Amino acid sequence: MTTDTARGPVIAGLGITETGKVYGRSAADFAADAVRRAADDAGLTLSDIDGLLTSSGVMPGVGLSLQTELGLRDLRLLSEMQAYGSTAGGMVQYAAMAVRAGMAEAVACVFADAPLKEKTSAGALYSGAGLGTSGWMGLTAAAGMISATPQYAVAARRHMDTYGTTSEQLAHIAVAQRAWAGMNPRAQFHDPITVEDHQASRLIAEPLHLLDCCLVSNGGVAVIVTTAERAAHLRKPPVHLLGWAQAHPGYPMNRDSDLGLVSGAAQAGPAALKMAGVTIEDVDVAELYDCYTFTVLLTLEDYGFCAKGEGGAFAASGALAPGGSLPVNTGGGQLSSYYLWGMTPLSEAVIQARGEAGERQVSRHDVVLVSGNGGCFAHHSTLVLSPHARA
Amino acid sequence: MTVPVIHRDTATEVFFDSTARGELLIRHCADCGAHAAPQSGACPVCQNPVTAWAAAAGTGTVVAWTAVHGRPGDGAPASEAVSALIELTEGPWLYAPLRNLGPGERPWTGMSVVVAFERPEGGEAIPVFRPTV
Lengths: 391, 133
What we know:
The complex is a heterodimer of chains A (391) and B (133). With 391 residues, chain A is an alpha/beta fold. Chain A folds into two domains: 3-116 and 217-231, 3-Layer(aba) Sandwich (Peroxisomal Thiolase, Chain A, domain 1), CATH 3.40.47; 148-215 and 239-391, Peroxisomal Thiolase, Chain A, domain 1 (3-Layer(aba) Sandwich). Chain A contains 15 helices and eleven strands. Chain A is globular and about 50 Å long. Chain B has one domain (10-131). Chain B is mostly beta strands. Chains A and B meet through helix 6, helix 7 and strand 5 of A and strand 2, strand 4, strand 5 and strand 6 of B.
């Protein structure tokens, strides 16, 4: 190995706790559990971990105190990060740069959340999340933007009015992902759904139906980022981080905004692919952040899997489903498997890249593209993963 | 359907003083003359800090919209609240509730709207929009 390849960043460990309606455990508890599982998966002990990046969801507690919770000594890297749904990808990016630079050898990146409580509706948990009743945020809430859902609904409506995208086309994304979820033992939903089921599901915020929306889950996921050199002697085959990028559009609140039409994926995708030395045609599997079906549609267009405005037709062609030309969200995604923000697509990407996905394993998995999305298309992260080091 | 009770903070004092008078304020860039949304800290054109306010005409068009559905209650139908992203005539965008629509009636992109104000008991006056007659 040359020094450059030797210090090439890889994901060497993946830890997924119990997910879904798992009650009575705190987010911090899930986070510690996830890190222990990831270390064990990699064949590392906790004392091998010298870097820790943490990320909270709606419930606080996954922060710097996790070091104490896990008894980690002499860390060389420690931060709590927040870029909403793009954080998981971001944590991996910063960890990759840290190990490449020699700042740390094994960095655990963890997200955990525990919003679900017994006998409380999932929707109520996220309604008003992050919004206050005062100031500008209060004004936005008073306008009816009481959660992320109406904001994404407005964005989806704009795409529909501009390009003719339909609710039935969005339904195909939900249907395809449920078909994948049927083969994922970890998924919260397994029963197949149809376009008609989607259309009949209740409207949450027009044009979005219930089956356009992600579920809510408790749980935690951690990955261990280390160097190719170190991973060569570890338990699991390394998943190489070939390319990465972020994009934060900073949409102005005026007529120049691309909200609903173009997301940060349009910049981050090509940049990450270029770093990886591959093109969009080389991508075998895409694990895309899917808080809503529309998020997947816009990301597909912006990454260049289809032309701008043709995401609806592309989804309706069946391309994303098992047996289709582009396997997307092969574990069921946030819509049907588990909702752990950016860790949902990232965890499935690692599983597919390793070839550990069992019944749902795709045959070609040399290049796996992962997206993260935060705010209402305000923050984007892209990762390009591969079981092979860069040629 | 009424707007919820919202309170002012330091950053919104001038804005809510104006809504109480029945006036919609937006930001105005003293350097390049561009208009910006009321919550903007920087001019969208030249990025200089925007500190000046300007009265908006109160007219605009619908950029996109949604109708948020509540859960049906005991015997009561589910509520539907129509909200829109409004492009003011001056250019800035604002999320706002849409009023004066009939039952089941929906707006459309490009629909002309005009501002009105609602003041819930104990809260600030909130801009809402209704179709231009």
